[in-house]
Amino acid sequence: MKTYDEKHIKNIVLLGAAKSGKTTLSETMLFEAGITHKRGTVEEANTVSDYHEIEYERGSSVYATCLHTEWRDYKINIIDTPGLEDFIGEVIASIRVCDTALLLLHAQYGVEVGTELIWDYVDKYRKPTILAVNHLDNEEANFNKVVDDARRTLGPAVTIMQYPVNQGIGFNSVIDLLKMTLYRFPANGGKPEKLPIPDSEKERAEQLHNVLVEKAAENDDTLMEHYFEKGSLDEDEMREGLKIGMLKHQVFPVFCLSAERNMGSGRLMGFIDNVAPSATEMPPEITEAGEPIPCDPAAPACLFVFKTLLEPHIGRLTFFKVLSGEIKAGQELVNEKGNTSERLNQLFIADGKNRNPVERLRSGDIGCTLKLKNTLTNHTLNDRSFTGQVDPIHFPPPKVRAAIEARSKSDDEKLGEVLAEIHMEDPTLEIEYNRELKQVILHGQGELHLAVTKWRLENIYKMQVDYLPAKIPYRETIQKPAQASYRHKKQSGGAGQFGEVYMKIEPWYEGMPPFKEHPVRDTEEIALNWGGKLVFNNCIVGGAIDNRFLPSILKGVMEKMNEGPLTGSYVRDIRVSVYDGKMHPVDSNDISFKIAGMMAFRDAFHQASPQLLEPVYDVETSAPDTMSGDIMSELQSRRSIITGMDTLNGSQVIKARTPQAELDKLYAALRNITQGKAKVKAQFAEYAPVPGEMQKKLSDEYRKTEVVG
C-alpha cells in the first residue's frame, strides 16, 4: 500500500443519529474509490464496517469501525460510529482522534436526539465539521427545514454548499455553490453529469453563492481585502477561506446526499481532499503536562491508543493515531503507563475485519497492531527520546446499573475475567465488585448497553448470566442517646467465658461537646471507610475492666457497625462511651469482651431511635421547555425534591434531589416521556433519612433473612 505524507492524510469520523445512513455512506465511499467492487447493505448484513455478529442481529452499528479510501492522491481514513447514546464511548473516542466530523442529517427528521448528544462532543473538541443531508430521495425530504433545524441547534456557522433541485422520490440533481454547477446523477448513481445552472435556479444560486463567498472571506483579513477589491473570490480563495472557517468552527458546509443510491459521495470526498484540514493543520495534541506534540514526521515517534478490540482467533487489536514521527513494523516504543516496552511486530490499515499490512505509518495516520501486552485505550507509546502522556479521553459517567451473577457457580471466577476483558474494550462499562452489597454490579450508559453486554456474555463467551436489581448502599445511624449493658457468660467445662460491658451511645456530629457524664480516660476517633465517624470513649475507672480488653470491646462494636442491626448496612456517626463492666479473674478473655461489646452496642442501638439513610443524588435534566411539566411530574413521582429551574441554550434545565433507589427507573422513564430528548446528569450529594414506612419495610425484610439464615 502506498505511504502517504502527513499533508495527504485526512481523518474523518462519520457521525449521526441511528438510521441517518452512516454505514451506507461508508460503503458508497469505499465503492466509489474502488476499494470494494460491490456495495454491501445493512439489510443484507454484508457491509465492511458492520461485521460483528451482534451488528448483524441488530441491524445497526454497535462498534466504531476503522476504514479507509484513496481518492485523487489523498488517503481518507474513515471511522464509522454507532448512532445510539448507549454506545457513546465509541463515538467520543472516534471524535477525539479524527480531524473532521462528517455529521449526517436525515432529510426527513433533521437534527434528531442522538445528533444533539453527538454535537456536544464535536463542539467540546472543536472539530471542523461538514454536514451532509442524506436520504434526499425520501418522499418526506425537506432540505430547507433540515437546514433551519441545524442552524437552531448548531448556530449560524451552518453554511449551504449544495442544495437539491428536486428532492423527494425523483431526486437526482444538486446545485453546487462553490463550483456554480448543476450535478445530475444517473439512475443508478455514480459519476454525475455537469450542467449549467438552469434559469429557474439562477437567482437562488447566486444569492446562496454570495453568502458562501462572504462566509469564506470573513474568516481571514487577506481574503476579506480581496473580496472588497474584486467583489468576489475565486474558487481556490474560497476553498482557503472555508478551511480557515472550519478550523475556527465558524463554517459548517452543508452537502447533499443519497448514500443508498450513490449520489453525491464523490463530490463530498473531493471536498474532504481539497478543503478538510489534515492533522498538520489542526491544533497539536497536548500532554498531561500541557506540552504540545507537533504533527511532524521528523519528530520522535508518539502514538495514542484510542480503541482496544478483542477479536476471536486473533487476540487483542490496538487502534492508534500516530501523533508525531514515523513508526515502522518491528519498532520498539515505550508505554508511558508503567514505563514498559512494546514491540510493534506488525502494522495494519484496517477496513472492518480486513487488515492490510503496511511497513510504516507517518504522523497524522491511523492504524492498528496486534498483541501488545501492556497497552490499553488511553495509553501513549513513545520513542525513547521523548516522554509525555497524552491527555486521556474522558468518558461520560454511567447512567444505569444492574447486578450480575453467573447461573453456574463454576463460572463465577471466569465471569470476573470476562468482564475485565469487556471493560478493556469498552471503558464506559464499569465493573464494581461491591463487598458491602455482596454483588458484582455493572454500570452502563443505558439499558441497551447492558443488554448488549449480556448478549456478548451468552453468545461470544458462552456464559449464562442473570441481571438482578442492584442493591442500595444504605447507611444506619441513631437519633437519640441510649444505654445498654450485656453480660456474656459461657461455661462448658474448664475455662469459661465471661465479660460484662456497660455503654452509652449518642448521635455524633462535628463539633459536639465532650462527653461529661463519666470521666474520659482516652478517646479514639475513627474515620470510617464508608463515610462518617465512630468516636470511642474509654470511661472505665477503678479497674472494672482491664485496659487490655478495651480493644476487644471496640472490635465488637466495629463488627456490628459493619453489619448494622437495622438492615445489615454500614453504621456511621456514633459516639460510644464504655463506662462500666465486670470481669472474671479466670474466665475473662478477648472473645468474651468482644461479644459483650457487640451485643451491648446492638441493644443500645435499637433503643436509640435508629434511622436508615439512603444515598441521594443531585440530578440535572435538560429538555425542551414543552416537556418540563412531564419531567417535573416524573421526578416528583420518584420521591425527588425540585431544587431549581433554569434556561440554557433554549432548553429548560430542572434540578432535583433524587434517591439512588429511584435513579435507574428515572433514567428509563425520562428517556421514554421525552422520546430520548432529555439529557440527564447525576452526582452523589449526601445521605438522607429514608421515609418511615420504607424503613420499616426494609427492616422487616432484613429480619426475615436473619431468621432464615
Walk me through the structure.
This protein has 16 helices and 38 strands. Helix 3 runs parallel beside helix 4, helix 12 crosses helix 13 (590-607) and helix 14 runs antiparallel to helix 15. With 709 residues, it is an alpha+beta fold. A hairpin with a 2-residue loop joins strand 19 (347-351) and strand 20 (354-358). A 7-stranded mixed β-sheet has the order 2-3-1-4-5-11-6, with helices on both faces. Strands 18-17-23-14-15-22 form a 6-stranded antiparallel β-sheet.
Question: Quick recap of the structure?
Answer:
The chain is 29% helix and 32% strand.
Question: Which SSEs are present, and which pair or pack?
Answer:
Blueprint: E1 9-15, H1 22-32, H2 53-58, E2 65-71, E3 74-80, H3 88-97, E4 100-106, H4 113-125, E5 129-134, H5 143-154, E6 158-160, E7 162-164, E8 173-176, E9 181-184, E10 193-195, H6 199-217, H7 221-230, H8 235-247, E11 252-256, H9 265-274, E12 285-286, E13 292-293, E14 302-311, E15 315-324, E16 326-328, E17 331-335, E18 340-344, E19 347-351, E20 354-358, E21 360-362, E22 366-370, E23 380-382, E24 400-406, H10 412-425, E25 430-434, E26 439-444, H11 447-459, E27 465-468, E28 475-478, E29 482-490, E30 497-507, E31 522-527, E32 533-538, H12 550-562, E33 570-571, E34 574-582, H13 590-607, E35 610-624, H14 628-637, E36 641-648, E37 651-659, H15 660-673, E38 679-689, H16 692-708
Parallel strand pairs: 1-3, 1-4, 4-5, 5-11, 6-11, 28-33, 32-34
Antiparallel strand pairs: 2-3, 7-8, 8-9, 9-10, 12-13, 14-15, 14-23, 15-22, 16-21, 17-18, 17-23, 19-20, 24-26, 24-27, 25-26, 28-35, 29-30, 30-34, 31-32, 35-37, 35-38, 36-37
Helix pairs in contact: 3-4, 6-7, 6-8, 12-13, 14-15
